[in-house]
């Protein structure tokens, strides 16, 4: 990859997001995918010696998820009797930490593809030239995306500390419910390092979530800039440079194909988890305020607003790639009428496909992000939330403070 400055003036609106991400999480060890500020590139780290600390953090996250899973299975089998608030918090933390573990596994598996595709897209955008026109992103979206690392980093530290202090963390519940009384006075000292490791697991999760919001936001801005520049230069189709012009568009298709093994499972996982968590947070916020103590309860209404907001920010960026490329191809159709060599240019245009971001697993695409994706998503969230509120009577649960 040539070592060149990939950001001409004007700079991308989300450029500061990855810089802020790299600075706020600079104290953490090397991860498989990182952002290098001097070269302004996404870097894939695959040297096993550099990733030892990352593996240790991944193990702490795996142990925490395993203990939560054992506690919940023990509750289902009747071996222990957890409080309702403890069950809800356990399900919530298992969902969030499980999501972080899955996304980190996907990132580690396809780190090379993600870094190469992103850096190629940055170079392509630099070669085509960034249009001086304003971004299609509202100012609120720009501010939110650039502030994501600043918002997530403290929560990765504060939430585990609050859980340990209140005795609602993973290992405190393990000590209270699964350790025999005669061993607790010894085990409580053994579990102290494991409790402290939850801080590392929390920061691990915060880093994964921050990267996978900041990175797609900047990538989508590159793609928007490239398509916008191609749209302004569409008149080239009437000249002898039409072939080179369409090669630039084909390069965008190739880059999305390279990134697809990474982006498709990430999109599918994030949309599925956010769908489940939004319904769960809505239900708990509206019907279970008398069950969960106030400090932990404050998380649920905040998440009920924050998670849909993140979806509302990230998904339209992916949808706009399909919308903008569709408008560009339609524009080519109007220009084709005025060209001299219509048959040749028409064959070139027919060979181009609309740019799309897919969601799927194991190289099987389930759906693509198009204009109808977001309304369908929020309609399903609303329907299932109403169904849960009408079907489950939360008054049956005892008040637990």
From TrEMBL:
Keywords on record: Membrane, Transmembrane, Transmembrane helix
Domain of life: Eukaryota
Membrane-spanning ranges: 53-73, 80-103, 140-166, 186-205, 252-276, 296-315
Entry protein name: Uncharacterized protein
Organism field: Folsomia candida
């Amino acid at each position: 990859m040539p070592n060149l400055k990939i950001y001409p003036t004007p700079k991308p609106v989300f450029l500061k997001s990855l810089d802020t991400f790299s600075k706020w999480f600079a104290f953490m060890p090397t991860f498989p995918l990182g952002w290098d500020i001097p070269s302004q590139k996404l870097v894939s780290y695959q040297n096993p010696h550099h990733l030892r600390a990352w593996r240790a953090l991944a193990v702490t996250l795996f142990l925490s998820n395993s203990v939560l899973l054992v506690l919940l299975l023990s509750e289902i089998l009747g071996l222990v009797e957890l409080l309702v608030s403890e069950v809800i918090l356990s399900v919530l933390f298992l969902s969030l930490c499980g999501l972080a573990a899955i996304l980190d596994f996907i990132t580690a598996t396809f780190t090379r593809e993600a870094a190469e595709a992103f850096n190629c897209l940055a170079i392509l955008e630099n070669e085509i030239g960034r249009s001086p026109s304003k971004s299609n992103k509202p100012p609120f979206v720009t501010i939110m995306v650039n502030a994501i690392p600043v918002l997530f980093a403290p929560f990765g530290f504060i939430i585990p500390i609050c859980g340990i202090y209140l005795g609602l963390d993973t290992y405190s519940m393990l000590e209270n419910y699964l350790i025999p009384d005669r061993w607790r006075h010894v085990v409580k000292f053994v579990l102290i390092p494991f409790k402290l490791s939850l801080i590392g697991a929390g920061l691990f999760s915060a880093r994964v979530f921050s990267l996978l919001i900041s990175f797609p936001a900047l990538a989508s801005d590159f793609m928007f800039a490239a398509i916008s520049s191609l749209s302004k230069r569409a008149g080239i189709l009437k000249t002898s440079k039409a072939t080179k012009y369409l090669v630039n568009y084909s390069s965008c298709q190739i880059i999305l194909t390279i990134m697809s093994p990474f982006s498709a499972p990430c999109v599918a996982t994030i949309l599925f988890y956010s769908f489940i968590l939004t319904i769960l947070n809505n239900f708990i916020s509206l019907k279970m305020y008398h069950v969960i103590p106030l400090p932990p309860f404050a998380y649920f209404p905040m998440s009920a607003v924050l998670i849909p907001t993140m979806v509302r920010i990230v998904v339209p960026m992916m949808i706009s790639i399909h919308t903008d490329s569709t408008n560009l191809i339609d524009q080519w159709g109007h220009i084709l009428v005025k060209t001299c060599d219509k048959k040749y240019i028409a064959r070139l245009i027919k060979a181009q496909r609309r740019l799309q971001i897919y969601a799927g697993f194991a190289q099987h695409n389930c759906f693509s992000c198009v204009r109808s994706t977001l309304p369908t998503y929020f309609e399903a969230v609303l329907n299932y939330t109403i169904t849960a509120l009408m079907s489950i009577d939360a008054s049956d649960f005892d008040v637990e403070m």
